[in-house]
Structure formats: structure tokens, C-alpha cells
Amino acid sequence: MAENSNRDVVIIGGGHNGLAAAAYLARAGRDVLLLEKLDHPGGAAVSAQAFDGVDARLSRYSYLVSLLPQEIIDDLGLRIRLARRRYSSYTPDPGSPGRGLLIDNGDAAATAASFASVGAPAAEAAAFERFYAECRKLTGALWPTMTSPMPTRSEARQLAEAAGAGDVWESVIERPIGEAITRGLQSDLVRGVVLTDALIGTFARADSADLQQNICFLYHLLGGGTGDWDVPIGGMGTVSGELERAAREAGATILTTAEVTRIRPGGTVDYRHDGQERSASADWVLSNVAPVVLDRLRAPDGLQGAAAAQPMNPNHLREGSQVKVNLLLTRLPQLLDRSVSPEAAFGGTFHINETWTQLDDAYRAAEQGTVPDPLPCEIYCHSLTDPSILSAELQASGAHTLTVFGLHVPDRLITAENNEAMRTALQAAVVKSLNSVLAEPIEGLLLTGADGTPCIETKTTLDIQRAVGMPRGNIFHGGLDWPFAEDEAPLDTPARRWGVSTDDPRILLCGSGARRGGAVSAIGGHNAAMAVLESLALESQDRKPQGSES
Known about the structure:
The protein is of the alpha/beta class. The protein has 3 domains: 4-46 and 236-316 and 474-542, 3-Layer(bba) Sandwich (FAD/NAD(P)-binding domain); 48-64 and 82-109 and 229-235 and 324-469; 121-223, no CATH class. The protein is built from 20 helices and 18 strands. The strands form 4 sheets. Strands 1, 2, 9, 10, 11, 12 and 18 form a 7-stranded mixed sheet that branches. Strands 7-6-14-15-16-13-17 form a 7-stranded mixed sheet, sandwiched between helices. The protein has a two-stranded antiparallel sheet with strand order 3-4. Strand 1 (4-12), helix 1 (16-27) and strand 2 (32-35) form a beta-alpha-beta unit. The longest helix is centred in the C-terminal third of the chain and has 21 residues, at 523-543.
């Protein structure tokens, strides 16, 4: 490859959104170069053999799919299979761990009986179902807008009102979500199950005035208009792998181990590849890295610190708030609650120490600088839904994977100096929380790798930042934004209408930091590609001589 090249589009970052943008633009005939710093594309949406000598492909960072539109799967011809989980969730009662709430998507009567078994009021099961049914009116109205130019707030509200969701709009968009939860539900445990949707990766309380928890809640219920979260068959790597295939087959050039070092005015991107300094010039630069990383790349030498401290959007500096622990077990553990099989309990989202009160207590503890005790956790067992991520030998042995997501562990607790100690402490906190609802200690069920090390790994926010470039470990690349534009916002360019603009009209956001980014959705990549193609169409129209045929 020549040291300098000219392209139509350069994409910085080969995560799943960058791959989606590359596929769309290359299919439209554009000359696309994608630059990825790591030795493989996919970013956080990958599968990995995390444990030495153990043939299990873990979805190490991202693990479920909800927001990936069928439209994108169809447009790009992606061969992706998503499996629905029968069980929505299981939540042991921390006051009496021998009982728990099992929400069974396939058995409404059993679910109602489970509500009664944890002491919920007689009408709580119906109220729970009614709460989410009302929310689906709102998400059903907004979901189709995610792959179109953004509506304004007023237009989005009109869509909600037309769908009979005017009251839900007020509860979810205008007022702290905690008010709706406490108004509609009575049980401390049931309220907590609902509140977790507002707190995953977000350090907030139910009544936080900035409504970050509301935006998180909306995104967790938005996918497909229903909020169903599915397991990608073959692991998360199949999603990014299919996007990579689509991009390469369309003609996009994808370079790995290509670290971008600077974006210069005029669309020149400097990068390091094969030990050489190179550059590529393009009409369009699409950024699939976090917005604060983009700010640093665009800053002149010597001013990177200032640019990092004062990003274009302060919301992009929001910290991540989680710890992730992956485990590989010889078998599923037995529960203190003997009325529920481990296969059912782990078949959906397993909530631990996540009642309404416990979540608020955990927030207060973290705000004061300590690790919550007990640590609120939720667990996903991908291998129950998709055994193919395990070798035939592991499947036959009864082995299973567990992924634990610990809430209310804000990045402010982690420093470069204490990271190793905090990783150890957080892993211990996760194990303690998990063991509080088990009839046997989880440590005794861990498989061992070829080197004799137990198969458990823990990722702090700093580990996530270092591994996949998410500043402050924020899994959304920064604070989430509403999926609509404020009424007074300028929407005078395609980039602004599609929610992918920066202060440079030729540099667009195409990742999770875009207006409707976050999660494994490919929406950011799709929308940036649409903005480029719309801009090119407008430019072509402007170049036509007056009076020429359309």
C-alpha cells in the first residue's frame, strides 16, 4: 500500500457500527477504507476464547441483541440467527432467598403464582404486565424512527399520542422514571426488577433530575418496539463477523493493526500500519471511536489534554458504571430456592440483590466511594440458549458459561494505581453476591484452564477502556441521548437530521456516540452511511445544470 492514498470515505474504528457503515457505503459504490487499531475487527462485539486451553467462545463484552433492526439484517444480507429466551428473569427474595420471582414468558399462570410466592400484592402480576404493555405503546411508536431522519421532540410526542401513549410519554420522557415505577407497583422486589432496565451501565438513581436513567430505560425497552433481548447463535462474534463479511464482499478495504494518530483538517487521516506512518485523504471521515477519542485525534499537537477536558458535548464524558465477570462452570449451581430449577433460573436474566431498596443503597455507597455490599448483579447464561459456543466435549460434560454484570460500580472508584486491587475486590464482591442465593459456593464449580487457573475473569471500567477503547469504561461511549432532536435544534443538514453530526460537516459519528447509538445495533453505522449518501445526492442535484431533467 502506498504511504498516501485517496478514498471516498475513511472509517476510524472497526467495531460493528464501523463495519455496518462500510458495508452500506461500499455497496453504494464508494471507495471505503476502514482502519482498526486491534488485530481483529468487531470491537466489543466479539467472541473470545477467554480461558487457556478451554474451547468456549464467550461474548466477552457485549452479550445480548435487542436493538439490531431487521431492516439492517435484510439490507446487508446478514446470516444471523437470534434465539428468544423462554424465561424473562428470575429474582431471589433477599429477605428469604429460598423463594424467588420467576417470570416465564411461556406460562402466565406460573408467573402469577410466582408473584404471589414472594409476597407481592394480589394485583401486582397484572400491574407488572400492564406497566410494560403501556411502555410498548411508546416504544412501538418510536422504534420505526430509529433508522430514519430524527423526529423532533414534538413530532415524537405526536407519534406517541397517536399510539395512545401520551401518558407514558409523560412518565418516561418528562418525569423521573422512579415516579412511574412506584406509582404502578408496590413490591420492593418487583420495583427493583423494573428499575434495573434504567441502570445498566448508568450511574444514576431512580429520581435523578437529568433523566439519564430514563434514557437508559427507554433504550432497554426500545428494540423491535418490544424490548426483547435475544442471544446471537454462535456468540456475539457472529454479528460482527457477518458485518465484516458484508463489508469486504461489497469492496471495502479493512486494515487491522492500523492505529489512527491524527485527523487533520480537510479530511486527512494519519495512521500507523506495518511499522510505517501512513495517511489517507477522504471526502468523508466517519468516526466509530468514542466522541472524546475523536476530539483528541482532531486536536493539534500539544492541545490534546485541553480537547479531552472540553469535548464538544460534555455528555460524552459520562463515566461507565459496571464490573463484568465471565465464568465457566462444570455445571449450573443449585439454588437455595428449590422450587425453581437452575435451568429455569439461569434461562433468562438472573437478578441478585436488586430490589428497589438495595439498588438505592448501592448507589449511595458508591457515591460515597465504597464498593456496594451486597453488590447488585445480573447474570446471563448464554450456553443454555446457545450450546454451540461450547465444544462438543464441554456440552457433553454439562459445562455452562455465566456472564455477570455488576451495577453501581462507577469509574470514579477505579484508578490506574488501584485497578489490580479493585479487580480482585470486585470479583470477590460478585462471588459473594452470587453465593448469597446459591446452595453451594460457586468457586467449587469453576472449570480450570490448561494452566490450572480457575476459569473466571473480571473486567473493571479501566480494563474495558484499555481493551476496547471505551473512555471511562462507558459501554455507550458516553451519556445516552434521547432518540429525537429538541425542537430548537438545527436540522438543516443530512448529518444533523440523522443524528451523526460534529462541528465539521465532513466528519460524522458512526458509532455508539451517535445520537441513536449504544448497544449492538448497527444503527449508528447505518445512519452515518445514510447521511453521507443523502449529502452526495444533494450535491449531485446542486451540480445539475438548470433546466436539466430530474
